[in-house]
Specification:
The chain has helices at 10-23, 27-57, 64-70. By secondary structure, the protein is an all-alpha fold. It has one domain (10-70). Helix 1 packs across helix 2 (27-57). This is Toxin-antitoxin system, antitoxin component.
């Protein structure tokens, strides 16, 4: 497992320690989960914005069942 070092001020460290205590997690777990969740949320938002912009360029949609069948994800197989 890899290790990442993050430098913070004493005040920031105290705040992070208190937040970890408040959440009932270790400091490492708090930083890992909140960072990954935040990055995943940001990624999802950007992908959604991109997809919406593409839809606005060509406002055509297809039924989900058609797409699932096209990609071999339907229940018929």
């Amino acid at each position: 497992m890899a290790t990442i070092t993050v430098r913070v001020s004493d005040v920031e460290k105290q705040f992070l320690d208190e937040m970890a205590k408040f959440e009932g997690k270790s400091l490492s777990d708090l930083l890992k989960t909140t960072t990954l969740e935040s990055l995943e949320d940001e990624y999802d938002a950007r992908v959604a914005d991109y997809a919406y912009e593409e839809y606005l360029k060509q406002p055509e949609s297809r039924p989900l069942s058609e797409l699932m069948s096209e990609y071999g994800l339907d229940d018929d197989e």
